[in-house]
Amino acid sequence: MAPAEYAILAVTLFAAAGLQGSIGFGAGLVAAPVVGMLQPTLLPAFVICLGAVIGLLSVVRERTAIDIRGAGWAMAGRIPGSLMGTWLVVMLPLDMLTWAVALSVLAAVAASFIGWKPVAHRRSLLAAGALSGIMGTATAAGGAPMAIVLQGQEPARVRGTLSAFFLAGSVISVLMLAIAGQVRAEVLITLAAMCPAVILGFLLSGWLNRSIDAARQRMLALGFSIVGSVLLIARLLLF
User: Fold this and answer.
1) What number of other Cβ atoms are within 10 A of residue 39's Cβ?
2) How far apart are CA 162 and CA 184, in angstroms?
């Protein structure tokens, strides 16, 4: 990537880390379309590794609010979902996978706007975990199913539970992608270069949690996701 592209990526990841640190999800929604435009060969491994880094930071900060049982049921669904997502990464050509990123992000945003609020019980958590595993491993944007199931709960509990789920799920997805040969040196080098922007964005989220309400922050994340997805689709259609 050119220096200007690195700068765009750094700003995007700064915003992505700040948003996820504030509302519990959204880094993949924000980052995946931009990464797909700048350097599609980094998908999905780069954004999944990013999720692991932000998840670790969030778990440390929100550790007292985590619903361990709920995260455990969701992880039971995430594992088979991640296997399916890995298969899609290996089998699909790059353009098709890029389409999958854009369309899955738009679908997740649409679901959030519809406002469906299922009850967070064992079956719904298993299903959400499985869908998140498929979307997260194949497209690096798998936060929406879990966020929809957990919406309406106390903000710190949502952030903590989502963070624990995403950390464990991201580690599983990265390991599966590594076995499939999808975690290349390019991914790790770019991630290391972007870590300062990610950490600064996450630190910003601590201030955002005190000064901006969760509903407004959620709308910002969804709006950013729509713009990124539309730009990604435009790139696929025009170039």
Assistant:
1) 17
2) 27
User: pLDDT band at residue 117, thresholds of 50, 70 and 90?
Assistant: low
Q: 30, exposed or middle or buried, with CB in 10 Å at 0-12, 13-18, 19+?
A: buried
Angle at 144 between CA 141 and CA 147, to 5 degrees: 135
pLDDT for residue 114: 75
- Report DSSP state, residue 213: -
Among the residues of 92-181, which ranges form H helices? 94-114, 122-139, 144-150, 155-179
Instruction: Give me the count of residues in the chain.
Output: 239
The enclosing H or E element of 221 equals helix 214-238
- From residue 75, how far is each of 117, 120, 122, 124, 238 by CA, in Å? 20, 14, 11, 12, 39
